[in-house]
Specification:
Radius of gyration: 21 Å
Largest sheet: 4 strands, antiparallel
Helix content: 40-55%
Distance between the termini: 33 Å
Shape: elongated
Strand order of the largest sheet: 1-2-3-4
Number of helices: 5
Structural class: alpha+beta
Strand content: 15-25%
Order of helices and strands: EHHEEEEHEHEEH
Number of strands: 8
Length: about 180
């Protein structure tokens, strides 16, 4: 062991997706188990039931994995953002400010309202971190918007609803000031 693991804060979009889907998938799996058991008991084993059961279990696993692959991690000299298949390292030197505001603030402008979806609406009153990227880093801002989408990047701000925003801000605030000087 060389040191402590980096602090990891999960992005709540993935967690919300899992929370919304787990009940439906659970009921669906229970129903398929019941139908498969019934078909076995009446000696009319249905391969379709078993195939649907396997697909439902795989889908639940994929949804759970997606919720765990959406996080921001604090490293020694950078923030590592992982969202599904995308991984981005943000050096502290390219960050100018970190603040906490409700998520809905990022979607109040008329041109940003089109990015509101069910997940954003449900989380809109919850706190989110707004990570300001130095405007001189235009290439980084463009790359982030291309890779993460306009829902997460608003101008020069990276907007993330994460777990435990206060702990994240406390851990990052001194490093952002140190990196921007």
């Amino acid at each position: 062991m060389t040191g402590a693991l980096p602090a990891r804060f999960y992005i709540r979009y993935g967690l919300q997706r899992w929370d919304d889907g787990k009940w439906f998938i659970g009921i669906y799996i229970a129903l398929l188990i019941g139908l498969t058991a019934y078909s076995v008991m009446v000696h009319q084993f249905a391969v379709l039931n078993l195939a649907l059961l396997v697909l439902a279990i795989l889908f639940a696993g994929v949804l759970r994995t997606m919720s765990r692959l959406a996080y921001i991690e604090i490293g020694a000299d950078h923030l590592r953002l992982r969202y599904l298949m995308t991984r981005v390292d943000l050096p502290f030197g390219s960050l100018t400010r970190v603040r906490k505001q409700p998520l809905g603030v990022a979607f109040q402008a008329a041109e940003r309202r089109r990015y509101l979806n069910r997940f954003v609406r449900r989380l809109s009153r919850d706190p989110a971190v707004y990570i300001r990227i130095d405007r001189r880093e235009a290439d980084l801002i463009d790359d982030l918007e291309r890779r993460l989408g306009a829902r997460m990047v608003s101008g020069a701000d990276l907007v993330l609803p994460i777990t435990d925003t206060d702990a994240f801000i406390a851990a990052v605030k001194g490093r952002v000031r140190a990196g921007s000087g």
